[in-house]
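Shift notes (night). Ran SRP54-type proteins GTP-binding domain-containing protein while the centrifuge was going.
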Amino acid sequence: EKLFSGFSKTRNNLSVIDELLLYWNLSDTDRVLDELEEALLVSDFGPKITIKIVENLRQDILAGKLKSGSEIKEALKKNVLDLLSIKGSKTELQLGFRKPAVIMIIGVNGGGKTTSLGKLAYRLKNGGAKILFAAGDTFRAAASDQLEIWAERTGCEIVVAETEKAKASAVLSKAVKRGKELGYDIVLCDTSGRLHTNYRLMEELISCKKAVAKVVTGAPNEILLVLDGTTGLNMLPQAREFNDVVGVTGLVLTKLDGSARGGCVVSVVDELGIPVKFVGVGEGVEDLQPFDAEAFVNAIFM
Ligand code: GDP
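Came back to this:
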């Protein structure tokens, strides 16, 4: 339900398709496909994906494989679903067997990093995990205060920098050591979020990664990149840069509730080959949903 209501704006954008297909007949194919193309573009599926889908449908219609509007609609959904499935990749968190599992949350400021970390903590804690926060955004003074509020809200412990000049990697290392000593299941690491073009930030993320790997073999288990869904396809260059430098294991797409550009989910997966693990569909503590491709397709196309 949350996912369905979260995607209402994108669904409204795409609802024109239903009307088109209701009255579709073979001689009308070009016009209908042109309008379908327009609806997909407006919803930020991106030109590459849009052309791929529309041409697949055209071929199947001309080959007589799709004979009614409802068959075309089902084929459209199937096309999107296929584009979302990356072979061998898992949309569930992969936390390994060593304790604590370490999840690094990265992304530019304002994208929803801290909020997503808090919501993720709530979800994992409800699943029975003992969670420790690491306040690794040592760059922005208010970041650690904001994270402390989330720690309190979710009833989790937090490790913060001891001095103003403390390095992010030192905070993360300390948190993971504490996690190991005190039997925590998961350490959720916040990181600072200057622009992805900032060389120092990228260096810092690399040293954070190395620092946690020194404490627990195999850590970090997940590096989740948080991307602002309202920016649609503009998130792509940013995501590529983070992935090239740090190696992203999963995406968290936020603010999709306020966006009519939900189609960008498909482009991002197709372009980056990284699975979307969670989507943010609101500001509440329960508004982070594990990404389920089938539920997503049903939420945007009905
Ligand atoms: P950070 O700078 O990346 O840590 O971003 P924040 O977590 O502080 O989030 C920035 C703003 O986006 C805050 O006002 C959040 O409440 C809001 N936000 C985060 N995720 C979502 C979401 O999924 N939906 C909506 N509507 N707002 C969100």
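The mean pLDDT is 93. DSSP finds 13 helices and eight strands in the chain.
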